[in-house]
Write a structure and sequence with these properties.
- 36% of the residues lie in helices and 21% in strands.
- Helix 1 crosses helix 11.
- By secondary structure, it is α/β, with parallel strands linked by helices.
- The longest helix has 21 residues.
- The chain contains 11 helices and 11 strands.
- It binds S-adenosylmethionine (SAM) and zinc ion (ZN).
Length: 318
């Protein structure tokens, strides 16, 4: 991979333990395979999302038969399906933004993959998967203009704060080749019943829906799509992730185990269900299968802004 200096945009040379900028003579250290462009660790994200993702590929015949139903449900699988639908061997160079510990699925077609993230601990894992990883903010990427055939992100764009969005979208556009492909699975806000109910208590909403994961940049799906258009991307395909009735297991326990949400019948039921299937993988799988199809149907039929989360494919406008 080629890198450019994030300070002066000059070409850089790779040394054994650093990248050296020829025009401005800045030196960026490489530690444990991670090219470091940040002086300080990010206080929120450092060490938070370190896991490397590997797509689940069922080996058994019944497992493969049931896969479409499960894809209907799990967010991880929505993303895998999005990548499989749009990526091919034509995409020789791919960038994973907010890559965490990396995603083996992006290597499927033999591309050279680079990852960018704030967390060093996550990137140390990603460095075992990708050929180049950079500790850097997505608002200032150390890659040349028109460089990648595709870029991808999973649960990243909802973490980009409003005052950072313009810079991040501009960088995504800059590093992508004209006509290049962008694939994102992104967290969104919603006008659905769950979000409307939870917003009745603004302090609870802020704490449990925003601060808990750092979802400082979630927007309504329609706003998120408009932003892509405004930033020079054409929308190729949109999939609504889910609606609130069928929230993925584990989520209710994580977010709604609280007096405020226990006052709501639906949330109480979801909470009880979450507790009932906790640590019981077979029951979780059964829930996946039972809910996969209705969840997809509800999401597909719901008005755009009632869904939570989008999987989108975009093309950089020439
Ligand atoms: C929810 S995690 C998802 C990680 C990974 N994509 C995955 O699938 O596990 C969001 C990631 O975005 C990264 N992130 C947040 N803001 C960022 C920014 N401005 N620039 C680069 N990475 C950022 C965080 O460090 C974190 O690893
Ligand atoms: Zn420089």
């Amino acid at each position: 991979m080629e890198l450019v200096c994030p300070t002066c945009c000059g070409a850089m040379r790779s040394e054994s333990d650093a990248w050296l900028c020829e025009p401005c003579a800045r030196r960026y250290p490489v530690r444990d395979g991670v090219a470091c462009f940040l002086e300080d660790a990010d206080p929120f994200y450092e060490g938070m999302f370190t896991g490397t993702r590997h797509a689940e590929r069922p080996e058994t015949f019944p497992g493969r038969l049931l896969l479409p139903f499960r894809i209907a449900w799990s967010l991880d699988m929505h993303y895998t399906a999005l990548l499989r639908r749009h990526l091919s061997a034509r995409h020789r160079r791919i960038l994973d933004l907010g890559c965490g510990g990396g995603n083996g699925e992006l290597l499927r077609y033999g591309a050279e993959v680079a990852g960018a993230d704030l967390s060093f601990a996550s990137l140390r894992n990603a460095a075992t998967v990708y050929s180049c990883v950079a500790q850097t903010s997505a608002s200032r990427l150390p890659f040349p203009d028109d460089y990648f055939d595709a870029l991808a992100s999973f649960n990243f764009l909802g973490h980009v704060a409003p005052d950072e969005k313009e810079a991040v979208y501009a960088e995504m556009r800059r590093v992508l080749k004209p006509g290049g492909l962008a694939l994102h699975n992104m967290e969104t806000s919603s006008e659905g019943a769950l979000f409307r109910y939870v917003r009745r208590d603004p302090e609870f909403y802020q704490r449990q829906m925003i601060d808990l994961d750092g979802h400082v940049g979630i927007e309504l799906p329609s706003r998120a799509l408009q932003r892509f258009r405004d930033e020079g991307f054409d929308v190729v395909n949109v999939r609504r992730d889910h609606v609130w009735y069928f929230f993925p297991y584990g989520q209710a326990k994580k977010r709604f185990d609280d007096d405020f949400s226990r006052r709501n019948l639906w949330l109480r039921l979801l909470l009880q269900l979450d507790h009932a299937i906790e640590n019981r993988p077979r029951l979780q799988k059964a829930w996946d299968l039972v809910m996969g199809v209705p969840s997809s149907l509800f999401a597909a039929l719901a008005p755009l802004d009632r869904t939570i989360g989008l999987s989108v494919a975009l093309r950089k406008r020439n």
